[in-house]
Every structure is written in C-alpha cells, then in structure tokens.
C-alpha cells in the first residue's frame, strides 16, 4: 500500500511538473538533471587530472573549470587588454587577450566586486545562471514553432548535448547563447527594436554581429518576398533594416576598438590568426580559404589524399544546406533556418577547422528542434544516452589535459 502511494505521488509530482502551464518547472528539472550528470563527469575528470599549465594535480571543480580560455578571461577581468600587441621571434603577432571579447569577463568582474568571490567561482556562477536562462528561453523559442512536448525535448537535447559541459565553466558560451536565443525570440516575434540592445551586448560577447546581420538581411528579403501573403508594414521594414545595419556595424565594432587601442588596423584579425599558425603558419585572412587549408593540413596528418578531404568537405557543405530545405528542417520555421544557414556560412568564411570547431557549432542549436521531432521513447532515450556518452568523449578529448595537449576545447 505504501509502495502504491509512493508511485502515485511520484506520478502526480511528475504530471504537475510537466503540465503545459508550468513549462518552466519542467525546463528547470531538465536543466538540474543535466547539470548533475555533467558536474559528475567534470569532477571525475578533475580527480584524474595531472599537473598542467593551469592547475596542479587533482584540482577542485572551480580550478578545473577555469583552464584553457578561462585563464584568458581571468587575465582580462583583472588586467584588461594590452595596448601593445605581443610579437613573436619571427615578427608576427602572438596569442593575446584581444581574441576574447569583453562582455563576459567584465560581468564576472562585477560579480567578483559585489560578492568578493574569486574569479573561478564567480565565472562559473555567471555561466550557470546564463545557461539556465538559455534553457528557459530556448523552450520559448522552440514552442513558437513546435508542440510543447517536442519543444521540451529539444531543451533536453540542448542541456545534455555532448558539449554542454561548456555551459558551466569559465567560458563566454552560455552568456552568448542566452543572448542569441533571446535575439532569435525577438526576431521571431517581429520585435525588431528590442533586438538592438541584445545585438549590442551579444556582439561583444562572442563574434556574432556579421552572422546575425546576414540572418537579419535574409529575413528582410524573405518578408519582402512574401509581403502579399504576410503583411510587412512600413514601420516593421524600417525597424528590421535598422536592426540589420546595426548588427553589421557591431560586427566590426571589436575590430575597430582593438585597432584604436593598439594602433594596428589588423590587431584583431592578426591575433585570431596567431591561433591557427601552429597548423598552417602565418598568413592573411582570406574568406573561405581556411577550410581548404584545413583539408590540406589534416590530409597530411592522417596521410590521406588532399583531394579526398576536399571532396568530402564540399559534399558535407552541400548536404548540410540541402538538409535545411527538407521537410523535417522546415518544421523549425524560416527564421531559425536562416540563422543556421547564416552562421554556417560565417564559420566557413572565417574559422579554421580543428578541435575548437565543435564548440563553435553550438550556435546551431535550433537543429535540436529537428532532432526532437521523432516521438519514439526508445529513440529519445537512445539520443540522450548518446549525448551523455558524447559529453564523456568531448571532455576526454578537448577539456581534460593529457600531457602535451593539441586538442583545445
């Protein structure tokens, strides 16, 4: 009898959490469950972490969460940005803080000042808070185009995704994803003026202004194209075009700030190129060239014909954009697909493919809505299990430091 009462109580509690009007409770429950899993994985890897460039052996959670780029954000939060660019022995610009935008470390510094917490704890607090905000906003976005249950499972995919560990370490991704999801929400609601402050902060959190400007521009073109079917009144045209131009300007803002402070017009791009010099040497930033350079580099690394990787790259790109016009992809709506296409083009234009690329794919999160479409319980359970296994694999490959580590997150 007691067992039956317990089961009944659990079922009632579960039904209350999953009730449509209490969607936020369901999202929080999913988020908390995912953080328990991810924290457990990170703690296990921390327990076997050896001496490395950032910590001693067996670091505590917060020290382990502050490694890699987290250390750059720590430097920025305390010392800001250099007015003179560091130069290598060969005369090229070396790796430096200008590669990392200021919104996240500035906010962490504010939290440090208000709470007296040290950087490691304050940065994780900020990241986790924005992660929860991102999960809540993601449900709102997905529920604009998908049924409640499907939108909720899309949130589960986001929270348990292979790279979801990045949401609770000293990285700017969680803050950026929250702002991006909020921006897409306002875009889908046609609240273009509300986009301006979000774009302003988002563009100095992670590189995003140019990609979002492209998505907005395509959105304007699309709304003009279907204006007879869906009204596109003049006040909305003005607001949408203004938001597009503002995002375009903000896409160059950090580059211009870096140039003004350092006196070098190419300070930001030279700094970014320093990170790929270990793969392909120093050179100029040529749009869309990096992925073909990467094909050449990785072909040599894996001892494969370069033409084979080049053909595979082209085939993968064509297949990806072809996928965006399939019926399952159409279920997430035009606006989200325009963002996915725009961001993918942006990645192809400016980034070099290596282990960090997996992290850079996180803004393609709307595709979680497509993955969430099948209703099979077995499929959904298997997908979440694969996500958790992917977390272990990614932390092992990219976050955990194993001697001389060439696979940064």
Short précis:
The protein has 409 residues and is an all-alpha fold.
Search tags:
single chain; 409 residues; mainly alpha; 20 helices; globular
Overall description:
The protein is an all-alpha fold. It has one domain. Helix content is 68%, strand content 0%. The protein has helices at residues 2-18, 23-47, 61-65, 69-79, 103-115, 119-143, 148-160, 173-188, 192-202, 209-225, 234-262, 267-274, 277-280, 290-302, 306-323, 327-330, 334-350, 357-360, 368-371, 377-399. Helix 10 crosses helix 17 (334-350). The termini are far apart.
Compute the number of helices. 20
Q: Could you tell me the number of beta strands? A: 0
Helix content estimate = 55-70%
Q: What coarse outline follows from CA principal-axis ratios? A: globular
Count of discrete structural domains: 1
Strand content: under 5%
Radius of gyration: 22 Å
Q: How confident is the prediction overall: mean pLDDT? A: 93
